[in-house]
Amino acid sequence: MEIEKKSQVEEEEQIVTPWEVAAEKGGKIDYDKLIDRFGCQRLDQSLIDRVARLTRRPPHVLLRRGVFFAHRDFSDVLDAYERGEKFYLYTGRGPSSEALHLGHLVPFMFTKYLQEAFKVPLVIQLTDDEKCMWKNLSVEESQRLARENAKDIIACGFDVSRTFIFSDFDYVGGSFYKNMVKIAKCVTYNKVVGIFGFSGEDHIGKVSFPPVQAAPSFPSSFPHLFSGKDNLRCLIPCAIDQDPYFRMTRDVAPRLGYHKPALIESSFFPALQGETGKMSASDPTSAIYVTDSAKDIKNKINRYAFSGGQDSIENHRKYGANLEVDIPIKYLGFFLDDDAELEHIRTEYGAGRMLTGEVKKRLVEVLTELVERHRRARATVTDEMVDAFMAVRPLPNMFS
Ligand code: TRP
């Protein structure tokens, strides 16, 4: 009996939900399997080429390197765009901690590029209510974190004339709430248990939350922005762990007379220790934070970043590094914009001519610059600017 239980645990499938990401024992997240299980589509080269053509600019590094690797109906959004129909972007953040790590910045950096390249409006949901319920934070603390996180989001460079940031605690009501109720009426308890795995022990706040994250997918939730534009399409850039919310949303959309929201989905930013899940906010050595000093970054990369290099210089020269498991190479893939340089490093390191120390040194430079730039940008974000982004107001020049 005991033995049987143990082997069951060992064979356990990877888990990817909005609240938990874990690879199969000892392995990496299997993204092909995820695409199959979730039923989304792979984002292939022809789609990337199409984005480049339509926006008349090179595709973003996170697109070129396959970090955003899956989608739902993204090609429909591009078809419509080609016909002259615009869309709006929707993304969000659950404000559970004060300091963001690099993984948190990934969707926002990408969303900023999309907003600029397509010249479209953007709504950003801060789910302070979600984190209050899941993380056992007080209402006040969740709201404070939402405002602090808004500053980091604004520091990514969003255009205030095209961006509306809102906290659920402040904004939910009116037309947004009407949509929540319409959505909720279309989803049975069994359905939500099937999608999210809630149990009888979970409080009813959790069970009732999914419509809150679904509602921004419909333009009528924002009458001050999209009044009379119920047909406007929505594109959601997010990490693939958010897919369950939007599977549910897409399921109910036609019944409410809306387009299904389209999605463009990323893989997870791996922890320093290796690619077995996403970074954990509770383990400071697993991630680089935007608040880390240059010295912190250097120490963390040198001490903790999992290396695919060989155990001795002789062996390394002979066999080369295993790039598949090497975290510095993975991180450079996210943030080193220069394709030729990355290719050069991969070749030299893979052949053993370059050592782990040299690769880590380059990564430290790249990350230090990124973090310094973010810190400088965040320091210029004032409370007035946060108020401006969060004000319920029309957005001038939304589509131009
Ligand atoms: N639930 C998300 C989180 O915990 C926040 C979120 C809300 C979100 N709406 C979204 C993320 C839309 C991506 C897209 O981080």
TrEMBL record:
<keyword id="KW-0648">Protein biosynthesis</keyword>
<comment type="similarity">
    <text>Belongs to the class-I aminoacyl-tRNA synthetase family.</text>
</comment>
<dbReference type="InterPro" id="IPR002305">
    <property type="entry name" value="aa-tRNA-synth_Ic"/>
</dbReference>
<dbReference type="InterPro" id="IPR014729">
    <property type="entry name" value="Rossmann-like_a/b/a_fold"/>
</dbReference>
<dbReference type="InterPro" id="IPR002306">
    <property type="entry name" value="Trp-tRNA-ligase"/>
</dbReference>
<dbReference type="Pfam" id="PF00579">
    <property type="entry name" value="tRNA-synt_1b"/>
</dbReference>
<keyword id="KW-0067">ATP-binding</keyword>
<keyword id="KW-0436">Ligase</keyword>
<dbReference type="InterPro" id="IPR001412">
    <property type="entry name" value="aa-tRNA-synth_I_CS"/>
</dbReference>
<keyword id="KW-0547">Nucleotide-binding</keyword>
<keyword id="KW-0030">Aminoacyl-tRNA synthetase</keyword>
<protein>
    <recommendedName>
        <fullName>tryptophan--tRNA ligase</fullName>
        <ecNumber>6.1.1.2</ecNumber>
    </recommendedName>
</protein>
